[in-house]
Amino acid sequence: MTRLHVDWTRCDGHGSCTELLPELLAPDDWGFPVSLTGERDPQVPPQLERHARHAERSCPLMALRRV
Amino acid sequence: MSLTAAPPTRRLLTVGRATTLPTPGPVELAELASLAGLTGRGGAGFPTATKLRAVVAGHAPVVVGNAMEGEPLSQKDAVLVTRAPHLVIEGLAIVGRALGARQTVLALGPRVAAGPAQAVAQDHGVEVRSLRGGFVAGQESALVSQLDGRAPVPRDPLVRVTTRGVEGRPTLVLNAETLAHLALVARFGAPWFREVGTAEEPGTSLFTLSGKVRRPGVVEAVRGSRLADVLACGTPVDPVAVLVGGYHGAWLPADALDTRLTRSDLQAHGATVGAGVLHVLGPDRCPLRVTAGIAGYLAGESAGQCGPCVNGLPRIADSLRRLADRSRDPGLPAEIDRLGRLVTGRGACAHPDGTARMVASTLRVFAGHVAAHRAGWCPTDERWTR
Q1: What is the ipTM of this complex?
Q2: What predicted TM-score, i.e. pTM, was given to this entire model?
Q3: Do the chains contact at B307 and A32, CB–CB below 8 Å?
Q4: Dihedral Cα B84, B87, B89, B90, nearest 10 deg
């Protein structure tokens, strides 16, 4: 199963990932993504794989990666 | 020196130069480190054998000795590199030869003198570099970045420096003290190393004593010693609490001075030995004020790359300062707790995690202080104005 990894040195909190994957990511006080599963790099359940791919492609800074 | 103190075991600061340098191969060296039970002395306490094996497979790696010593309360690497530079350089040379390193570097922070190391480095083909400092500059990837001529900031940990480090080569970064221990293990053997310390944590470690002590400085002590015994070397004055592990460490209250300085015993206090910093807080200073100051410093030391750290650490520091200022805001402790959990695990390095851990321990250990401050008074002031 793939995981979502945020490269924090790239992320500027644009927020597209939290919009596209509300099941796994929520914005924090400043708009940066927070993992909702409690894992540092949250696992992507198969039914969300398509959305995760979309979120990865939509990140303007390429900070979100499926690993 | 107090008579109750365990006799300090002097290894690192008294052993002379090797007549001939031991030349173990890569497998043998990792095996030696494993048998000795040697762990990293830079803070994380990672098994050295595992690190050595991580680059054994790599081709022509770069080996870096880390004496950046970014922790303001630590002086042990500066003392070691000044007083026993030969051990650090020998350690580097042994690792470099074993791994077939293309480059072997000793990286010194601005508080570490280069002269003594330079005097022995040439004989062993080790390069000594004096680099820019900063709290996070000694973090592995930040150090690699600086050696590559870029800013001393950590990078995303997805690709480890053992895979791609200095100039894209597999890079092994070992703390200066770890290298000195490794040099001694190669010379005298793993059983010798294990003659002192505990079975889980053998050998000795350097500790830096500071704060409310008569004789601050660096001491070498057997691992697993009682906190009180190591502190006794510096003669603490009326300790209220001890910050164990430095600015990313945790407080132990005065009633916990019998705690042994081992991973398992310190775990109950949320602390680790870290890089061996022991900072004594006396009764004349407000712990919340002290911690607010440290948190403010740490916020300023953020590399400025990761949003949660850049935004969260100043907020934590500011909330602590308001608490120390006896703000009547009843939500402050809960807010500090929430912010600490919010930043944890959300950065390229462990700077937010370490800061949050230290702050959380403050609220836990000084719960009475927190309650008093919320009621509008400070127990420290009270005691000293009476």
Answers
A1: 0.96
A2: 0.94
A3: yes
A4: 160
